[in-house]
Amino acid sequence: MDLDLIKKLREMSGAPVMGCRKALIQTNGDIEEAMEILMQEGLSTAAKKVGRETTEGLIYAYIHFGGKIGVLLELNCETDFVARTDGFKELAKDISMHIAWSNPRFISPGEMPEEERKGKDKEKHLSSCCLLEQPFIKDNEVKIKDYLSGAVARFGENIRIKRFVRYQLGNEAE
Q1: Residue 174 domain-assigned?
Q2: Segment Involved in Mg(2+) ion dislocation from EF-Tu: which positions (predicted)?
Q3: Domain total for the chain?
Q4: How far is CA 117 from CA 77, 104, 109, 144, 161, in A?
């Protein structure tokens, strides 16, 4: 297998070298198909890690350009080793920027009060007010929950958004 192709897939996906090699062998060197295989494997890996405890992490503060919107995000992971990586900090920044832009009110549908769910177009309403159900601002094809699952696969640890607060100049904290 061509090492440059493995290296390119690894840079694109963040997956381990052996996982990239295996996916490329399965697809006869087709990098797009290999990427799809890695995504599917990553999602199943994320599902396995979901129940694991997340007691480490960081509080990330993001102030949007112009200083009129700010976000505090608590992003948790399993170890302080992962929490200190640049990739984890970048993940926190991306999610915080998304929160600043999209103004979600809840992390997941399970947090919504029952009366909030009644009598509305469920899919549209969930994507407007639940962070995990929203299309990611950097890639509208991917929901935040899938972006987070990709990060779980990349870091090899359970990662979860514990809480956030969004401030906007002239408004109450949201």
Answers
A1: no
A2: 79-82
A3: 2
A4: 30, 15, 9, 20, 22
